[in-house]
Specification:
By secondary structure, this protein is mainly alpha-helical. The protein is built from eight helices and no strands. Its main location: cytoplasm.
Length: about 240
């Protein structure tokens, strides 16, 4: 759709659910009051129309670049990319999705009781993912970067508290499987993220964001399990000192 200050909030979100995050940031109701135009809400909220429209365009352009050849990247670059891209994505989107699911369960739960289970599963997943990412960022990734630096400088590598990188990796991969299983359950409960035909914009946006979250999570887990972790294990084996 052609975006202008005459475009209505509801039409914009219906055209691309990613823009919902922009309106949420400005506390603009795109569901019950989606009939308002950008011009109207900007005037009422004293928001610069040009700035808001640019944020909306940025949200529409915010798609992951799938052309990267991750296998050619060194481990330290992959670890940094995971932290700044996929980890930040979870930290930013998780609370927003949880907010929508809380609202859905409260409003539509009596008719659609599965929403309560979806909320419970996602809440637990987000909590566990947060702890999982902290372990990666504070323990595993720093050691991977330390190995890469030692390799580049030709220096020795001290034995880590976990003895070998394979030990924490095994735990992280178990976490990945648990998370994947939870999202398989969410997909089943949502009929593969298909909202009821009579659903409101909030319902549609919540399911769409859940689907996007799972897609990003699949890329995230794939990059760790099948690229970063094998590379880290092989890198560790290049050191003469037995860890």
């Amino acid at each position: 759709m052609k975006l202008s200050n005459k475009s209505t909030i509801g039409e914009i979100v219906a055209d691309d659910f990613r823009t919902a995050a922009v309106f949420t940031k400005y506390h603009i109701d795109f569901c019950c009051k989606g009939y308002r135009t950008i011009q109207e809400v900007c005037k009422k909220r004293d928001i610069d129309e040009i700035v808001l429209i640019e944020y909306i365009r940025d949200a529409k352009r915010n798609t992951a670049n799938q052309s990267f050849d991750y296998k050619t990247w060194p481990v330290d670059v992959i670890a940094d990319y995971l932290t700044k891209t996929h980890h930040r994505y979870i930290e930013e989107k998780g609370p927003v999705i949880l907010q929508y699911l809380t609202k859905l369960a409260g409003v539509h739960g009596p008719i659609h009781p599965e929403l309560h289970e979806i909320h419970t599963i996602f809440s637990k997943s987000f909590l566990d993912l947060t702890a999982h990412m902290k372990r990666e960022e504070m323990v595993v990734f720093p050691f991977i970067i330390k190995m890469k630096n030692a390799q580049s400088k030709g220096t020795d590598l001290d034995t880590p508290p976990f003895l070998s990188i394979e030990n924490p990796i095994a735990t992280l991969k178990e976490d990945h499987e648990t998370t994947s299983e939870r999202f398989r359950r969410i997909a089943a409960l949502t009929n593969n993220y298909t909202p009821p035909t009579e659903s409101c914009n909030t319902y549609k946006v919540a399911f769409a964001m859940l689907e996007e979250f799972e897609k990003d999570l699949r890329k995230h887990i794939h990059l760790e399990n099948n690229t970063l972790f094998p590379k880290a294990i092989e890198l560790e084996k290049t050191f003469e000192k037995v860890l």
